[in-house]
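Researcher: Here's my situation. A collaborator sent me these components and asked whether they could plausibly form a single complex. I don't have experimental data yet, so a predicted model of the whole assembly would be a useful starting point for our discussion.
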Amino acid sequence: MPRFEPKNPDYRAVATATFAAQRAMRTLGISIARIEPGEVDLSMAYSPDFTQQNGFVHAGIITAGLDNACGIAAFTLMPPGSDILTVEFKTNLLAPARGERFMFRATVVKPGRTLTVCEARAFAEEDGAETLVATMTGTLMGLARRGPASSQDGK
Amino acid sequence: MPRFEPKNPDYRAVATATFAAQRAMRTLGISIARIEPGEVDLSMAYSPDFTQQNGFVHAGIITAGLDNACGIAAFTLMPPGSDILTVEFKTNLLAPARGERFMFRATVVKPGRTLTVCEARAFAEEDGAETLVATMTGTLMGLARRGPASSQDGK
Amino acid sequence: MPRFEPKNPDYRAVATATFAAQRAMRTLGISIARIEPGEVDLSMAYSPDFTQQNGFVHAGIITAGLDNACGIAAFTLMPPGSDILTVEFKTNLLAPARGERFMFRATVVKPGRTLTVCEARAFAEEDGAETLVATMTGTLMGLARRGPASSQDGK
Amino acid sequence: MPRFEPKNPDYRAVATATFAAQRAMRTLGISIARIEPGEVDLSMAYSPDFTQQNGFVHAGIITAGLDNACGIAAFTLMPPGSDILTVEFKTNLLAPARGERFMFRATVVKPGRTLTVCEARAFAEEDGAETLVATMTGTLMGLARRGPASSQDGK
């Protein structure tokens, strides 16, 4: 049983379309692994293109995944015609982001009319084991979408 | 007069080499614009590859620039043989990251033997005007570098 | 010249009254030292009643001062009939909070219709010297006040 | 089965003594409700002395409880002879802190030799129901205690 009741019966299609409109996600190789009301898992393969000086995935890239997981998780609970933006987030880096694949799992902690608070965790998968590498708490804001195409055309 | 006295006379070369060893920075098109003891400015051109659904630069990418500016700023004050890692950071997104170019300006607030706290601001440049788009407070940790090549080979 | 133009000509009286309605501030011995549009300094004398195990002022008490300075600073820029609440904040503790007196200095970084972002710094005064002991970045939210007495009677 | 193995067999006595040495906790009326390796619950009765302008408990006081729960939770996992200090924390305020009693529940997320990351949640109890009112993520640092009495005399 899902913890949250979506206000938009098309939440899955709308959230997926918003995700797909984010060119950054494509460039980073991040895709949706699971999407439920208030819960989203994103997945990213390791790429040397996004590493820091020790070959681990850069903290900013891990943050991009965490932030996006939070944003889509919050977005699944918003009414039709919404757009979403990140107000702020805080990330703790707990272990080197070393692995073949990374999962970003976000959950809504408190949905709200204006602000929604989410928590997310990043896990690195290496040799079949999963390590917690980072946490995020983020605040997202729902807005009325400005125009019919604004979240589709990506410009 | 610089606010801080570097412990490593080669701080500029070492910080620049560490930055250059970060493949993520190259991929994101981020370069060093200014480097002084405890202060670093990074610069990034707009690229549609790193945008969110409204065509603005993704919050995670802005965070990557802010985090790296903090990391290099902290690194300039570390003794020879140091490596650096980010412990945590917090970002507030203040305005859409819309512009032709972005600047990430970081300053050390409190250097420490183990932990260094930095603040950074991201500015978007558009039509000759600069807008503050995000702030970061971050905690960085200095470590003894593990091996002669660990921060050079980037793997 | 003030950086911000208040929307409420009575900003000073309203902000002072809201502060005075906070019994926590009286209990903690915190008072307003300076109030300008978007800028507030609060002052607190050391009291052993609010110390942690080493005799320094407890981080939560320092946070109460920082948060309140942010809240009042944001409040000075709100339209008449507003109430204010804290959405979130992040505090870095930089040095032991040891001193005879503490100052909490807050500045609005970005005012907004719904959300206002502030930064604040806590300083300890000891033997005539001032030490930076903590920083805060906080997000505040303006609301229409619910009833004529809700922010005056303090219950 | 506890999730963590304490390094100090006397963890409970030492953590309790450190808590008892914090005069701020006594003044705020906060006491230990539960203490296990890496997990601590603190309890606080409502007092009008610590309210903000609407009669809810002040965010700084809620933060003091959350921070202390994190600190003691981290402390239970530290080796003998340790002292502990808070590096930083981030708090989201989710609902008005209205109730007869408040619980602050902290868990260690990642223990470390130098740094320990904890998460905590504050709940308000009113008419037998519990409401989540705030969350914290905090970073704590373990130190060798400076002298035999340093964390005991503290006044």
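Model: Some features of this prediction you could bring to your collaborator: The longest strand of chain A covers residues 129-144. Chain A touches chain D through twelve residues (CB under 8 Å).
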